[in-house]
Amino acid sequence: MLKKFTVINYKNFKEEISVDFSHIAGYQFSSDCIYDGLISKMLIYGRNATGKTNLGKALMDIRSIVFKTPQNDGVLLNADSKKTAAVFIYEFIFDGQKLLYQYERLSNLELQREKLVIDNQIIFDCDFVQKNFNFDNLKFIGAETANIERYKQSLEEGEMEDIIELRLPFLRWLISNVALRKDSILLNLSSYVKRMSVISTSDIIRSQSNKVYDIFFESLERSSRLKDLEDFLNSMGIKCRLALKKLPDGQRELYFSHEKLIPFFETASSGTLALFDLYRRLIPLVQTPSFIYLDEFDAFYHYEMAENVIKFFKRKYPKCQIIMTSHNTNLMTNRLMRPDCLFILSGLGTLTALCDATGRELREGHNLEKMYISGEFELYE
Question: Worst-scoring range by mean pLDDT, 2-6, 162-166, 306-310, 338-342?
């Protein structure tokens, strides 16, 4: 699981900002927000333009390093900083082992430095700018057979041929080119990163020609899957029956089932479409997600539906680390969350748990929403 994440000089975060999943306050209520000593369900509040979306992008950045997923960063570095690169630091715990992975990059194509530390032992350290490399401790992860010269050669070829990616991350190369043990901590890391995802409210817009939807509709042809989608919507408060029909041109279309069939996408509310997209992207997955960043997840939801979504995630994915961003203060309640899992992101780039944003000792009986609205935590906004 992810223990702590830190980013520096990224977009609107000029100074260091950290998300510490290990910083828990020992509350005895809403214990389903914690798993194995780490925060598993987190809710972040922040005024507009404080960087909630950018924080999610920063957390997901490691996917572009490990799996070469496309990133459309635009401006990457903070406009007011004199530092030459953005710094990303991920601290994980896998089966009791501590893994720290740190890298610096100027853009998607220009990795400047990369370092891996396991249980306080530096495994490798690559300075791509100065061309200084330390691979002395690969034996600690069973990778002593790695052909380092072949890796260095690939770097030189990249610079000479001006290929798309100038500096191949050594971590990605190592995972792809070395026969690691089945219990390797690097394979645990790779599995975790592969199962990370981010969902934004902008994702609910449907394209009729999107092949992703065609594949999903094929899966709905199984009656059990269609019934599961129907039950999911009903559990969220959308009382409906669904039908899937194959049209003469071979395409499939989803309907609300009444005396007459009503096209789903033409008549569904924004909230229902958001729920549908949430289901499509997460529920049918073969592998359970490890980390989900839900940006303004309840933008189209009634407050009761937003609560239902959080409760659903707690039941469905107890181990998954889920960060949700919201402006909905109705969710700021101890019966659903807890003060060490509720955070405020300020315009200055600080992230503060409610339990650390007041001199009071927050207890289960406190009305956190009322305190927030009355200005109890305004110094941290």
Answer: 162-166
Which residues, at least 6 apart from 367, have a Cβ–Cβ distance to it below 8 Å?
333
Task: Tell me the CA distances in angstroms from 360 to 330, 335, 344, 363, 377, one per residue in order.
Answer: 21, 19, 16, 9, 11
Q: Other CB atoms closer than 10 Å to residue 53's CB: what's the count? A: 18
Name the pairing type of β-strands 41-45 and 321-326.
parallel
> 308-326 in b/e burial notation, b at 16+ Cβ within 10 A?
bbbebbbeebeebbbbbbb
Q: Where are the alpha helices (DSSP H) in the chain?
A: 52-59, 62-66, 148-161, 170-177, 185-194, 211-220, 223-235, 264-267, 270-282, 303-316, 368-373
The per-residue b/e assignment along 231-240, b for 16 or more CB within 10 angstroms, e otherwise, is ebbeebebee
Strands 342-345, 351-353: parallel, antiparallel or unpaired by DSSP? antiparallel
Query: Model pTM?
Result: 0.93
